[in-house]
Design a protein that fits this description.
single chain, 101 residues, mainly alpha, two-stranded antiparallel ribbon, elongated
């Protein structure tokens, strides 16, 4: 009979990565050639993918990242629709956004 034990293993709690820091790094990596529309669209997609799914959450995070909140609101509305061929995301009756599969 094998009596191995994991009692000697010490676990350390690691802080959860901050998703906003990851998005900030992503934006910084784009360089100057990526336009403001594409930057807003990518931040919106990243927010939704990381479960920030309400309009206010998305706009707040975009603002923290230095994007113009009014512009992000415009892009959020423009990208919203049920047809995945013409829109990037959609929302349910409660206003929660999700990406098209």
């Amino acid at each position: 009979m094998n009596t191995r034990s994991a009692a000697h293993i010490k676990l350390t709690k690691q802080p959860a990565p901050n998703p906003i820091d990851g998005m900030r790094s992503m934006l910084e990596g784009f360089g100057p050639d990526v336009n403001k529309h594409d930057r807003a669209d990518v931040v919106i997609q990243a927010c939704i993918a990381q479960s920030y799914v309400t309009r206010s959450q998305i706009i707040d995070i975009a603002k923290q990242l230095g994007l113009n909140p009014a512009h992000v609101a415009i892009r959020l509305k423009a990208g919203t629709g049920r047809n995945p061929d013409g829109y990037m995301w959609h929302h349910d009756d409660e206003g929660q956004y999700s990406l098209h599969a």
